[in-house]
């Protein structure tokens, strides 16, 4: 394959209007590369022209002559539509070109995309990323790459612009599997944070006391602190949209079920995120807190003291 020099090879980014895709495209364009971008809603990608990117009317127009094509879209259906639907990007890709599929689309979505690339002679690399919008803007994502060994040198310069670190994980699909496992952790932490903050509020406590108690100890977790603070302050500007978190949770649940795993915690997390996404799809995923909080009753200002004596009275039998 031809080398992916710093500026000589055109790069196409499909899904450049989303929070992640826009940041990735902007960082690539700032290096002086020829970057073509496409987004279903063109207006969401307009700001990229200030960085030197060219907006294409269709995915095919974006990928024409591009050596490397990046897809960063909401789900597997959107990726397949952009690449293989009418005006799809695959039709204009040469046999020595590379498709970097960087969206989180799960195992079956990844297999579908790899199956589309193979017959056309396009090198397919499964490379989802870890990080939020702010991390993407800073070019500090972690890339979970899996695919043909011979593709590495060709595409590493692209990953070096997008992220701070690339983990090469072996055969195609390994990147998506690790991403699902990591997402299970992230989503569980966020949902657990939502519930403990709702619980503290129901107790009549200031939820900030949770983080005061954890401060500096082995149980302190910066990510929980960050998302928990957003919940307490009701600041839900999206770093990662709740609708996408719910989609990812469903992918995790699907992957577990296909392996016969009974993971009730993850199943409940998936259900709760889906419930919140119906009301607040474009809020940050920390807005899952609103689902728990809306069900809480105000604490009783003067609860009756518990009956410690029990039916036997103060002289009842003692227990070891």
Salient structural properties:
320 residues; alpha/beta; Rossmann fold; N-(1-d-carboxylethyl)-l-norvaline Dehydrogenase, domain 2; 2 domains; three-stranded mixed sheet; 12 helices; 9 strands; disordered N terminus; disordered C terminus
What is the topological layout?
Layout: E1 11-14, H1 19-30, E2 35-38, E3 54-55, H2 59-63, E4 68-71, H3 76-84, E5 98-101, H4 106-117, E6 123-126, E7 129-130, H5 133-137, E8 141-145, H6 152-162, E9 163-168, H7 174-202, H8 208-214, H9 222-233, H10 242-258, H11 264-279, H12 289-293
Parallel strand pairs: 1-2, 1-4, 2-3, 4-5, 5-6, 8-9
Antiparallel strand pairs: 7-8
Helix pairs in contact: 3-4, 7-9, 7-10, 7-11, 10-11
Describe this structure in words.
There is one protein chain. About 45% of the residues lie in helices and about 10% in strands. The protein has about 325 residues and is an alpha/beta fold. The chain folds into 2 domains: about 10-170, NAD(P)-binding Rossmann-like Domain (Rossmann fold); about 175-295, N-(1-d-carboxylethyl)-l-norvaline Dehydrogenase, domain 2, CATH 1.10.1040. The longest helix has 29 residues, at about 175-200. The protein starts with 10 loop residues before the first strand and ends in a 27-residue tail after the last helix.
Proportion of residues in β-strands: 5-15%
Shape verdict? elongated
* CATH-level-2 architecture of the largest domain: 3-Layer(aba) Sandwich
The CATH topology assignment of the largest domain is Rossmann fold
> For the record, what CATH class of the largest domain applies?
Alpha Beta
The secondary structure category is alpha/beta
Number of E-state strands: 9
| Low-pLDDT segments, ≥5 res | 1-6, 308-320
Mean of residue pLDDT values: 91
Number of helices: 12
Order of helices and strands: EHEEHEHEHEEHEHEHHHHHH
CATH superfamily of the largest domain: NAD(P)-binding Rossmann-like Domain
Radius of gyration based on Cα positions: 24 Å
Helical residue percent?
40-55%
The largest pleated sheet is described as: 6 strands, parallel
If strands are numbered along the chain, what order do they take across the biggest sheet? 3-2-1-4-5-6
């Amino acid at each position: 394959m031809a080398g992916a020099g710093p500026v000589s090879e055109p790069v196409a980014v499909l899904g450049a209007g989303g929070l992640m895709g826009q940041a990735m495209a902007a960082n690539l364009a700032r290096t002086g590369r020829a970057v073509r971008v496409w987004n279903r809603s063109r207006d969401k990608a307009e700001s990229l022209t200030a960085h030197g990117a060219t907006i294409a009317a269709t995915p095919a127009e974006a990928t024409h002559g591009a050596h490397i094509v990046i897809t960063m879209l909401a789900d597997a259906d959107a990726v397949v539509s952009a690449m293989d639907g009418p005006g799809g990007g695959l039709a204009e890709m040469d046999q020595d070109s590379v498709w970097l599929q960087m969206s989180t689309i799960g195992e079956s979505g990844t297999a579908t995309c790899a199956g589309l690339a193979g017959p056309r002679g396009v090198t397919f690399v499964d490379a989802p990323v870890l990080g939020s919008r702010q991390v993407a803007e800073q070019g500090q994502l972690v890339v979970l790459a899996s695919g043909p060994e011979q593709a590495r040198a060709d595409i590493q310069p692209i990953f070096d612009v997008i992220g701070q670190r690339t983990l090469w994980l072996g055969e195609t699909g390994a990147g998506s599997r690790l991403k699902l496992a990591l997402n299970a952790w992230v989503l569980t932490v966020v949902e657990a944070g939502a519930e403990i903050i709702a619980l503290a509020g129901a107790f009549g406590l200031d939820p900030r006391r949770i983080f005061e108690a954890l401060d500096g100890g082995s149980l302190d977790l910066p990510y929980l602190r960050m998302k928990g603070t957003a919940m307490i302050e009701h600041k839900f500007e999206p770093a990662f949209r709740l609708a996408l978190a719910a989609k990812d949770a469903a992918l995790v649940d699907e992957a577990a079920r296909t392996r016969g795993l009974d993971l009730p915690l993850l199943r409940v997390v998936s259900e709760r995120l889906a419930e919140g996404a119906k009301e607040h799809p474009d809020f940050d995923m920390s807005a899952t807190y609103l689902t728990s909080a809306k069900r809480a009753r105000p604490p009783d200002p003067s609860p009756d003291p518990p009956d410690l004596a029990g039916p036997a009275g103060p002289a009842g039998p003692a227990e070891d």
